[in-house]
Design brief:
Blueprint: H1 4-13, H2 25-28, H3 42-57, H4 60-71, H5 78-95, H6 97-110, H7 115-129, H8 133-148, H9 170-189, H10 193-207, H11 217-228, E1 244-249, E2 255-256, E3 262-267, E4 275-285, E5 288-289, E6 295-300, E7 311-317, E8 324-337, E9 340-341, E10 345-353, E11 366-371, E12 395-400
Parallel strand pairs: 2-10
Antiparallel strand pairs: 1-3, 3-7, 4-5, 4-8, 6-7, 8-9, 8-10, 11-12
Helix pairs in contact: 1-3, 1-5, 3-4, 4-5, 5-6, 6-7, 7-8, 7-9, 8-9, 9-10, 10-11
């Protein structure tokens, strides 16, 4: 007899227990820290059957004694840990919280850093925080961060980094899976749908490549949308495939600098099309399989628009590519039905890594402040720019650079840096801050006016043309119109 008796017992008591006997075949081949091939003697089989019967009949204390009797004959094994989980449930019902806590703490002591340890910590959190979902989330995420070695505290806000747990052992992955399942349904059942969606998206990227429990996290997204959007969501993932893969960076046949951050985008079409099967993704770089190092970031169109891609997945492919030509090949399948892969879609593209010029610093060739308070005033000759309001009215700064002699081939980023002058009594900027910078599509003239920061008698309206709030080229900045 295998350990399925525990599954039946827990089902009677209304609790979930993850059992080795119900894991998929692919998972059973993995190695657990405390896993053994569990075979019970005929006598123990009879004892466990009797314990199950007693639990179902309501004789919980008697059932617990029989479970403990068997558990003591399998010390340090998964059998003992699983049986003690049932003992905890029975103890909670018979003797209350204090005694149940003692059982959980004994599990933690006997099976440190195992899946049973993690489950025990989650159960202890239920005693500690009850229905306070925010405190429970904080505690569960602390456990998840310890298991993974990554700070996951912002996962519910949709700000978690793209992470794959492929490198973790199987035991840790199923513990993480259980944590995120619990958090997903916690948010879903309390109407906090945005956070539930963020949790499902994060866990999909991190865990769906090797999902253990029934249903993937993408299927839980469907569950959420069925709950919040309506009947139309029930068709998600059951239709034909419309999968597409496109290169995001580097662009095909382009040249880039050393160690490029290679990425691609997989889209599934609108919600009527099949979802991406994350487990089928394969990534080759120059013929070498690098799939296990790929991180994914998935987002969903929660509005279920006919005109938008329902599922969009960005693949980030870390590389240490040297100089020369390189080829990336990505293959992925969709699931036309749950668990049934569709036809594979493949993208292959090449690019060249070259020694491009290092970072180049350029000074502005012209600049000026534009004032809403004085819309015809030019500040082209002023040594300062400002973003502070003038008498309650907005200001903007215009800055230009001459790129005519700069080779922009392979350019990946540019940074605009403006320096705060502390001698001007600027308040609130401290060591600096981030500002919004937008391109100007129209040419403009700097001008030679100067008024900002000067007393009235020292202000110079300027002459000729220049940029003002109202015009990129005011033909006469000397007047006020």
């Amino acid at each position: 007899m295998k350990v399925s008796f525990i599954k039946r017992c827990v089902a009677i008591l209304g609790f979930f227990l993850l059992l080795a006997s119900v894991l998929p075949a692919t998972a059973q081949s993995r190695e657990w820290k405390y896993r053994t091939n569990i075979e019970f003697t005929p006598q123990d089989e009879e004892t466990l059957d009797e314990a199950e019967y007693l639990a179902g009949a309501g004789s919980l204390a008697a059932a617990r004694e029989l479970y403990l009797e068997v558990a003591n004959r399998y010390p340090g094994t998964a059998a003992e840990a699983q049986i003690l989980r049932s003992v905890y449930i029975l103890t909670k019902a018979v003797d209350g919280e204090t005694a149940a806590r003692e059982v959980l703490n004994s599990i933690r002591q006997k099976f440190p850093d195992s899946v049973w340890d993690y489950y025990a910590r989650m159960d202890l959190a239920k005693f500690e925080f009850g229905r306070n979902l925010d405190l429970k989330y904080k505690h569960y995420i602390t456990i998840a961060s310890e298991i993974s070695g990554v700070d996951l505290s912002d996962a519910k806000n949709g700000n978690g980094a793209s992470i794959s747990f492929r490198a973790l052992n199987f035991e840790k992955r199923i513990a993480l899976e259980e944590i995120f399942i619990s958090l997903f349904y916690g948010f879903l059942n309390t109407g906090r749908y945005a956070e539930a969606l963020n949790i499902a998206e994060f866990a999909h990227d991190a865990l769906d490549f090797d999902v253990v429990t029934d249903g993937s996290f993408s299927s839980r997204v469907i569950h959420l949308l069925t709950t919040t959007v309506g009947e139309q969501a029930r068709d998600i993932g059951t239709r034909s495939s419309s999968l597409s893969i496109s290169a995001f960076f580097p662009e095909p046949n382009s040249s880039v600098g050393p160690k490029p951050e290679v990425s691609a985008v997989v889209k599934t079409g609108n919600f009527r099309n099949a979802l991406l099967d994350l487990a089928t993704i394969r990534v080759l770089v120059n013929g070498v399989d690098v799939t296990n190092s790929v991180a994914t970031r998935t987002s969903y169109d929660s509005s279920l628009s006919e005109d938008a891609d329902f599922e969009t997945t960005v693949l980030s492919i870390p590389t240490q590519l040297g100089l020369g030509s390189h080829t990336v090949e990505i293959t992925a399948n969709s699931k036309t039905q749950e668990g049934v892969p569709g036809e594979p879609t493949t993208l292959s593209w090449s690019f060249t890594v070259r020694n491009l010029p290092s970072a180049l610093e350029l000074s502005a060739t012209k600049d000026s402040t534009l004032q809403h308070r004085n819309p015809h005033q030019n500040e082209g000759a002023s040594p300062y720019l400002t973003l502070e309001k003038i008498q309650g009215k907005a200001t903007r700064s215009a800055v230009a650079f001459d790129l005519s002699d700069v080779n922009l081939t392979g350019l990946t980023s540019a940074t605009l840096r403006l320096t705060v002058d502390p001698s001007q009594g600027v308040n609130g900027w401290g060591n600096g801050d981030t500002i919004s910078a937008l391109p100007l599509s129209t040419g403009w003239v700097e001008g030679n006016g100067q008024s900002f920061g000067l007393k009235k008698r020292d202000q110079v309206a300027g002459s000729g043309s220049g940029v003002t709030w109202f015009s990129p080229v005011d033909s006469d900045i000397s007047n006020d119109y």
